[in-house]
């Protein structure tokens, strides 16, 4: 599965980039998850692999910053690298009986 989001900001690309890669900003976004940086093109692109919460699939996140008019466009694309767990349709957990 792939999820893509894009948003325009009224600041120049270099300002937006510095906000994305600032350690405190990145730490707030990534949280306490382990992430491995796969690729960086300074000022343009950051790619990392991580796993969200327990049970979430491992995914790769690509963040790009591009000039767009008087501002910058930030695009975030997240690709699941392994399938997410599935639950059969109609499955409902049963309450366990007490003995």
Could you say which structural class the secondary elements and strand pairing correspond to? alpha+beta
List low-confidence stretches.
none
Helix content range: 10-25%
Rounded mean pLDDT score:
84
The CATH architecture: 2-Layer Sandwich
The number of helices is: 2
Q: Write down the secondary-structure element order.
A: EHHEEEE
Fraction in beta strands: 35-45%
Can you give a write-up of this model?
This protein has 99 residues and is of the alpha+beta class. The chain has one domain: START domain (Alpha-D-Glucose-1,6-Bisphosphate, Chain A, domain 4, 2-Layer Sandwich). The chain contains two helices and five strands; from the N terminus they run E-H-H-E-E-E-E. The protein has a five-stranded antiparallel β-sheet with strand order 1-5-4-3-2, covered by helices on one side. The longest helix has 9 residues. It is globular, with a radius of gyration of 18 Å.
């Amino acid at each position: 599965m792939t999820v893509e989001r894009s948003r325009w900001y009224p600041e120049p690309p270099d300002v937006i980039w510095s906000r994305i890669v600032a350690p405190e900003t990145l730490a707030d976004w990534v949280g306490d998850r382990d992430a491995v940086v796969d690729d960086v093109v300074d000022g343009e692109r950051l790619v990392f692999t991580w796993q969200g919460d327990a049970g979430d699939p491992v995914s790769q996140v690509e963040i790009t910053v591009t000039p767009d008019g008087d501002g910058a466009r930030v695009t975030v694309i997240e690709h699941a690298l392994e399938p997410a767990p599935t639950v059969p349709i109609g499955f409902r957990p049963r309450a366990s009986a007490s003995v």
